[in-house]
């Protein structure tokens, strides 16, 4: 995979920071509405906390798959004894053929290099009549707070030069119709596609933890910069983002962190 973010390195710390992914993931679980006996795939499962929630809903087969070997190792050690299979695989090259009633994909779609190939692999993995539920951050301004905070890296003399060489690995679409079209073009029948602005009220420190659970895997990762960056760039950039989030807080020390999120439910014919 060309743009593999280094989620392996953060496998152990991800879960305690992944507050916004977890709460959006619970909404997505309701949308997928897993029934007893169904076989379910959690696509890009991370360390498996949400996969374990699927195990509570069905006595069928539950499989988590993720491209990061570190995430799969973490998921196996946390939840492998709960009767969940964890498989290392790129989402575009799934080793499954007509094996699942439902596919769940939370907070990962923006990372996929080739979303159309992922959707084709998902259609192959589903049985006829199966369904897929997907939630991901959406819009270029996926989190206006983070986009504004990162804007300081352009302005600050310590980071300006290196940050100009950042290349975003993410693919964001601007509205729910665009996501619906992507699924329909792949061959799904789209039952629902909606976009929401989800607001989390939190302290600057919590906001920074949330930044570190996802956005930092791109912004603070040398893999996503052209050429070499100075050794101290990433620690300095983290300080500047943390200070910017601090300034976004009101007099009560809290900030309203907004995420644009898309939710899609689609069926295989
Ligand atoms: C933000 S985490 C979300 C994890 C989990 N679904 C959750 O909601 O907590 C994104 C995950 O996507 C995985 N990922 C990124 N690109 C992938 C790909 N092409 N194929 C499979 N997994 C991928 C990463 O390794 C990471 O574990």
From TrEMBL:
Keywords: Methyltransferase, Transferase
Keyword Transferase: yes
Matching Gene3D superfamilies: Vaccinia Virus protein VP39 (3.40.50.150)
The keyword Transferase belongs to this UniProt entry's keyword annotation: yes
Domain of life: Bacteria
Gene Ontology biological process terms, A to Z: methylation
Molecular function in Gene Ontology: methyltransferase activity
InterPro entries listed in its UniProt record: Methyltransf_25, SAM-dependent_MTases_sf
Domain Methyltransferase: start-end pairs: 40-130
PANTHER family associated with the record: TRANS-ACONITATE 2-METHYLTRANSFERASE (PTHR43861:SF1), TRANS-ACONITATE 2-METHYLTRANSFERASE-RELATED (PTHR43861)
Name of the protein described by the UniProt record: Methyltransferase domain-containing protein
Originating species: Sulfurimicrobium lacus
